[in-house]
Amino acid sequence: MVETACVSVTPPQPNFAPGPVLLLGAPGVGKGTQAKELMALWKVPQISTGDLLRSNVARKTELGIFAKTLMDQGKLVPDALVENMVAERLREPDTARGYILDGFPRTILQAAWLDRHLADASSVVAISIKVGYHQLLRRITGRRNCPVCQRIYNIYSHPPLVDGICDVDGARLAQRADDSESVFAERMRTYDAQTAPVLEHYRALGRFEEIDGEQPVEAVTQCVMAALARLRK
Ligand code: AMP
Question: What is the CATH number of the domain that holds 27?
C-alpha cells in the first residue's frame, strides 16, 4: 500500500457507481492517467474532450479540420462545438452508472451548459488535481505516446526501454503537436484565464475537492477515490 495522506479514508468499492465525476486541472496534471485508473476500477467510461477532438482531427472530419488549428496553438475550441460533442457522447448507454469527464468543462459557459444539460446537475462532483508549473512543463515536454496502444511515456520520469519505441508493441512513439514548450505556455495562459474560474464555480457549490498531483500515480488515485467518497457521503 502506498503511503499517502489519503489512506485513512475508506475508498469506494469497485462496484460503487461513481455518478458524474469531473477531473479538473491544468495540462499535464495527470487527468488522463487518473481517469484511466478509475475507469478500470469502476467500469465507467472516461470521456476526454481532448481525445474526442484528436479523433476528429485524425479522421479529418469538418470539426477536426476546424479544431486542429486552435488545438495546435494551445487555444480552446468554441464552447458550442465541444458541448455538442459531449452531449452526443453522454447519450451512450455506458454512461448510466457514471462517467469521468476529463478536460470538460474548461470554461464557465461550458460549466453552465453542463448544469442545464444534465437532468440531475447536483450529482456532478469536481476533483481538481494540482501540480506546480515546472513539474508540468517537464511532464508535458517529456510526454510521448504510442499511437497503437495509447500507452503514455515520459522521457524523463518513465522512459521506454528502447529510446522512442513502445515497450508493448514496438511502435514508434509520437509527441503531440501541442506538447512543445511554446504551446504549453499558451495552454497555461488559456487555463489560468478561462478554466481556473471553473474550479471556483464548483467550489462555491460545495461539490469540489483539490488534491496534490505531485505524489506517485497510485497515491493520487487513492486521494481521488477518498475525495469522491467524501463528496458522495
Ligand atoms: P487536452 O488533451 O485535454 O489537453 O486537450 C487538447 C486540446 O483540445 C486543448 O488544448 C483544446 O484546444 C482542446 N480542448 C479539449 N477540451 C476542450 C474543451 N472542453 N473546450 C475547448 N477546447 C478543448
Answer: 3.40.50.300
- The alpha carbon of 41 and the centre of ligand 1 are apart by a number of angstroms equal to 25
Quick count: other Cβ atoms within 10 Å of Cβ 66?
15
Residue nearest to atom 6 of ligand 1 (CA): 50
Q: Which residues pair with 143 in a beta bridge?
A: 154
The number of the ligand 1 atom at minimal distance from the alpha carbon of 51 is: 2
The tens digit of pLDDT for each residue in 70-114 reads: 999 999 999 999 999 999 999 999 999 999 999 999 999 999 999
Quote the domain boundaries for residue 194.
19-45+92-231
Q: What is the pTM of this model?
A: 0.89
Pocket residue to mutate for ligand 1, from 53, 68, 114, most atoms within 8 A of Cβ: 53
Tally of domains within the chain: 1
Tell me if 207 sits within 8 A of 126, measured CB to CB: yes
Confidence of residue 13 (pLDDT cuts 50, 70, 90): low
Residues with CB under 6 A from ligand 1: 27, 49-50, 53, 70-71, 74-77, 82, 103-104, 106, 110, 178, 187
- On whether residue 198 sits in a domain, the answer given is yes
Show the DSSP H helices in 47-123 as ranges.
49-58, 62-72, 79-90, 108-117
Q: Respond yes or no: is residue 106 known to be catalytic.
A: yes
Question: Does residue 217 belong to any structural domain of this protein?
Answer: yes
Residue 5 pLDDT > 90, yes or no?
no
HSE toward the beta carbon, residue 32, CA cutoff 13 A: 16
pLDDT of 11 = 54
